[in-house]
Amino acid sequence: MLSFDDNGIYCKQANVYIDPWKPVDKAIITHAHSDHARWGMKHYLAVHNTIPVLRYRLGQDISIQGVDYGELFEMNGVRISLHPAGHIWGSAQVRLEYKSEVWVVSGDYKLQNDHISTPFELVPCHHFITESTFGLPIYNFPDVDTVHDDINAWWRQNKEEGKNSVILAYALGKAQRVINKLDVSIGDIYTHGAVDNINKLYEQQIGKLPLAKRIDASINTKDIQGAMIIAPPSADNTPWLKKLSPYKLAICSGWMQLRGARRRRGADRGFIMSDHCDWAQLNTAVKATGAENIYVTHGYKSIYAKWLQTEYGLNATEVETLYTGEQVEGETDITKEQQADEGI
Amino acid sequence: MKAFSELFTRIDQTTSTNEKIDALVHYFSIADDKDIAWCVALLTHKRPKRTVRSGELRDWSVEMSNIPQWLLEESYHIVGDLAETITLLLPKNSLHNDYRLHSIIDALIDLDGKDEAERKAYILNMWRQLNGTELFVFNKLITGGFRMGVSDKIVIKALAKFYDIHENIVAHRIIGKWDARHTSVKELLAQTDVNDDISRPYPFYLAYALDTPVDELGAVSNWQIERKYDGIRGQLIVRDNQLFVWSRGEDLMTDKFIEFHPLADVLPNGTVIDGEILPMKNGEVLPFHVMQTRIGRKNVTKKALQEAPLMMICYDLLEENGEDIREQPMQVRRKRLETLLEETGKLHNHLPLVLSPIVECHSWVQVADERLRSRELNCEGLMLKLKSSTYKTGRRRGEWWKWKVDPYSVDGVLIYAQRGHGRRANLYTDFTFAVWDGEELVPFTKAYSGLTDKELLQVDAWIKKNTLDKFGPVRSVIPELVFELGFEGINPSPRHKSGVALRFPRILRWRQDKTAKEANTKDDLLELLNVQ
Is B454 part of a structural domain of the chain? Predict the structure, then answer.
């Protein structure tokens, strides 16, 4: 029912693309990260609470239709519904059913409960399209609460040493996740403009976050002491960041599992925190869907496909896409223009 | 083991030299003598002999983590470090232990000669009990290559601070041969007599590459200017009528240099000379590769002795009649070196010692001209040493500079890439480059360094999108990117398809302005070989 063409993942019967990377007429968007939600589609469809972020990033004037999780709709006989993917708040998997064949496009997803996203919902299917960002057995992410405890302990220690704490995290998703579990009794929380913009949308759509002050012209950076500052990865090595000295820098990412990645990044700390599946989560999800046909996209796709073939006897194939998964090397999930807008 | 793992973590989590020193000082204050000895030994590259092969570690870890062998290999290519890969793959446990660093190393050393079953039982037992950093440190102890981001200099500073002994003395005492299993660092540092171990060399004083305009160095008359020779930097020691020759890498290489053996009876006892060992014939320096083939061999043949007779070009005198004279200014040490060689030369013919000639210059312009002559003399450039400089330890700025000639350069096309190790793990950073031979591209060198981190990421992303084929960990890519490669020398090599082998190849810059067609040719390389 689905095919992969130059524009993206395509359903011919419904004449709709899922997360296309070139301009098309109709696009269903799994979530608002820039490698999945691109500019230039005539019509967009996504879950309700992700629409404000899509408008913020793609333009207020885009044509977009909202649906609820689990709400069934039809496109030329194809029964389609969106289900929680647990990746970031508002992220969805897309279920498509036609003549009793079921496909699921999972986009980016994780099974861990991050306490800000609607948790991943298992959707049984015949054909499952999965990412493989961390599709190697070396990736075993620690328990979520332990990581939050570590972050708070790190912040406390830095404050004792008279330093600020800076965490670089994606503005959309990771930043809210980190802020949500900060221990406000330790000190003040500040945000970069790019993070604050998304925080406001989160608070409109989902719920309250601990109080965080936006660093703008009204703030004297000398008053920021022993504080926690949340900034997007693109803020690294900028004059904006230097003004917050003295500070310790941490990165929150699944890549921090590897010592080489940690050292390369030159951060003081790497917290292993990802919005993607680790090895065990991927295997759990793939098996639980009951799907016989697995399409492995962005990540260690050839290795993971081989594993699914040889260990589970599944019909697994690797598929080339333009999705990028979790980036950590100074890249960002927003475009250059938006960086300029947000004064990064 | 817990304390040492914590030390490892603290050092791993900081880039600040002072914080690293503090972490070490803290460790010295809580660890006992035996653990301190091993800590210092490991950090200064004195590793115990390896007793478990990496093939065995692979087999056993695959068995214990219940994954297929190929998946371990794939994981290893991504992680870039076997010890870390195994650490990440092994199942977690919730056990506690109170092993000590030295007891683990003793146990590992004792595995030597034991049969496989016994060694396996020990390793698996440890794997079941250790977790996280402790497990990683344990695996690193087995595989060796223990690098913690701590230089010898940091260890020396920390020891000096903790034991309140001058850095120079610490540096001298911990260099050379000592057995961590039977040595207490406290006692090692407290020894008063320099000659308690008569083979012990002094730490080498190394120069940084000149990075300021030469005329900003002040009056040229304040500087002693010498050629920078391309050989093996070494220290020649005669004490108690015995000869010792050390390389800069702290290898005792006396046996390799038969030519120097008579010096034991010729030089006065208590003599230490710093110099460059290189092949010389009829007063002329021969290219480095003439000596290279000889150094690798266990036994030196008569033929090799004739083809590559070695001499030492003497730079400096560090010990005279048993007295450490490193605190004397350069010009004083030089005078004494001259006198020593002159007087010894009067009594003995054909000594394998030559005084490093001073390049007399009256202006920096003249110095610059002399530098350009380096290659025709088989030299790498010039050394600039302040006449008032004392002989320091390690690499220092300011008083000694090396001013090398510009490297040779050639534009090559990137054709293969492989993932790197360590902090380059998971990135395609190990490159193979080719030049044109007619319509064909022939590989001629590999290069790993020279690009900025940002460029590495760009090239890595490009490689992933432009892969033609994968052979195990290696990818062949569309021949499109051109890089300017620098190297110090070029030698004929029948083993390479291009017919040449380069010395110290590295990337000078990414030629984004050039297409693959504009890269150099094999003939260009052969021409360099001829003019050399």
Answer: yes
